[in-house]
Write a structure and sequence with these properties.
The structure is a single chain. The chain is an all-alpha fold. It has helices at 2-16, 49-66, 69-116, 121-127, 135-143, 148-155, 164-177, 181-229, 234-240, 242-271. α1 (2-16) crosses α2 (49-66), α2 runs antiparallel to α3 and α7 runs antiparallel to α8. The longest helix has 49 residues, at 181-229.
């Protein structure tokens, strides 16, 4: 039983924890295209599997030795809190990505307007930093003699900043051909604005499905309340018996996976 508990807790924590985390690098690795000084190395999630399984094994031993339901209930509560925290973090990340996408559209419009007014490209890019903070790195790269299109392509990897790829392409083509950059960036601004409007429409259509999924996830709580009102004791079964704790943990895990699956499908559809 301790081994099974260890494997279950370890795999659950492994699934809930973030798979990658950004790490700063030393100043010796800075390039002109990254003047802000923050490159991102990725740590594979598999490297954290051994310590997480060790924690799970310890927790399983404690559950087996204590032979009580209090510790098992505490582990379930901790797992539920971690899952809720992960969903909150993802919701905030999606909101930040949406705000960044809107700022990219506004920056494309502002940059095209600056160029039509006769501003030099680098100075126009510097003026648009207030609209989109990501452009600070691209502007600094250009001022240091680096490649602005390459810097924009790197910045486009940030969530919600995919529109900077078109901006980088228009900038590079205009520099290479000697064409009018204002015209090219104006077309980029129009296409980016249209793409963003389509994404908003798709997101609004999916909002009802996401709301339904959340409502369905809350239905078991309503059923438990109805059972209590009819004279039963479902809460005592869930919190005070081994079978109830197993049902509780399995139910919470399935709710988390279902909501995460729905959110992932919605994000994939909006970004496609």
């Amino acid at each position: 039983m301790s081994v099974l508990a260890a494997v279950g807790v370890g795999l659950t924590v492994w699934l809930l924890l973030p798979g990658r985390r950004p790490l700063p690098v030393s100043l010796t690795t800075l390039t002109v295209d990254d003047p802000a000084g923050w490159l991102h190395r990725r740590v594979p999630r598999g490297r954290a599997l051994v310590p997480l399984l060790a924690v799970g094994f310890t927790a399983g031993l404690l559950v087996a030795l204590v032979e009580g339901t209090l510790l098992a209930l505490a582990l379930i509560v901790v797992g539920a809190l971690v899952g809720a925290w992960r969903m909150t973090v993802r919701a905030r990340a999606r909101k930040a990505a949406d705000e960044r996408a809107d700022s990219v559209v506004e920056a494309c419009d502002a940059l095209a307007g600056e160029l039509r007014a006769g501003q030099p490209p680098l100075l126009a890019l510097r003026h648009c930093v207030d609209v989109c903070a990501l452009l600070e790195r691209a502007a600094a790269a250009g001022e240091l003699g680096g490649s602005v299109p390459e810097a924009l392509r790197r910045l486009s990897r940030e969530p919600g900043a995919g529109g900077l790829v078109d901006l980088a392409a228009a900038w590079q083509v205009s520099e290479g051909s000697g064409g009018t950059m204002a015209v090219a960036l104006g077309r980029v601004a129009d296409s980016t604005r249209a793409r963003r409007a389509t994404q908003r429409l798709v997101a609004s259509e999916l909002a009802s499905a996401q709301a339904t999924a959340r409502l369905v996830a809350a239905l078991p709580v309503m059923v438990l309340l109805m059972g209590s009102g009819l004279g039963g004791d479902p809460w005592g079964f869930l919190f005070a018996t081994p079978l109830g704790l197993a049902c509780l943990s399995a139910g919470l895990l399935l709710v988390y996976l279902g909501l995460a699956w729905i959110e992932r499908i919605a994000v994939a559809v909006v970004e496609s």
